[in-house]
Amino acid sequence: xxxxxxxxxxxxxxxxxxxxxxxxxxxxxxxxxxxxxxxxxxxxxxxxxxxxxxxxxxxxxxxxxxxxxxxxxxxxxxxxxxxxxxxxxxxxxxxxxxxxxxxxxxxxxxxxxxxxxxxxxxxxxxxxxxxxxxxxxxxxxxxxxxxxxxxxxxxxxxxxxxxxxxxxxxxxxxxxxxxxxxxxxxxxxxxxxxxxxxxxxxxxxxxxxxxxxxxxxxxxxxxxxxxxxxxxxxxxxxxxxxxxxxxxxxxxxxxxxxxxxxxxxxxxxxxxxxxxxxxxxxxxxx
Length: 286
Hints:
about 290 residues; alpha+beta; Elongation Factor Tu (Ef-tu), domain 3; YaeB-like fold; 2 domains; six-stranded antiparallel barrel; five-stranded mixed β-sheet; about 25% strand; globular
């Protein structure tokens, strides 16, 4: 047997359109992107209209794609759930692979010509699509399989509720941390959503459900009285008690001197936020 084979060439069949524009905000798994809508646009001129025939009868599809923003690969990686221990890349779903091919199972809503409307799409906008296959439960699902280094933990209330509302989903071998919001933080998050269409609750919960510890995938650092999570240019104060994480407050990530720049359009939302939530809670202390 040869020790190597000739290089292979793959050609994308389409591209994904999603609300995620950077790696930090993109979910790491389809379940973390639950109900997020997106589309897969296949390229014209290849007869893909015929290739899509009969696919609309399936609830879910497999999407094979290319991690186009990754450069190089790593033999050992640090997955979000690995509690600080590096794992062999082939025992993980890390994007840092010798061949940066990804695989996601997503829900198929409908097909319009060359456009597939899907849910639970955990891809960055513009991701090249390599192939599409139907998800077939009797062949693709093995719920009782061992899960290796993903050790079972006591389920949280959210994990139990998710199982009760989604009977098709196998049990998560390592359910996430439970997240609760203080009245102050909930008011701040709702105001940002209602006033400026800034959704912080979703990325905060998606990140903290994996744990309160600092991690390459989680911009977290300790501060006096708790921890601080960075979500783009916002800062979220929280504290943990066992497997319960409480979000305490949201602050701008800018200093008062930066907020004083009247000509910078990026500051307007933060200036509005600080003006509405006047006082120390709106300005970072650390």
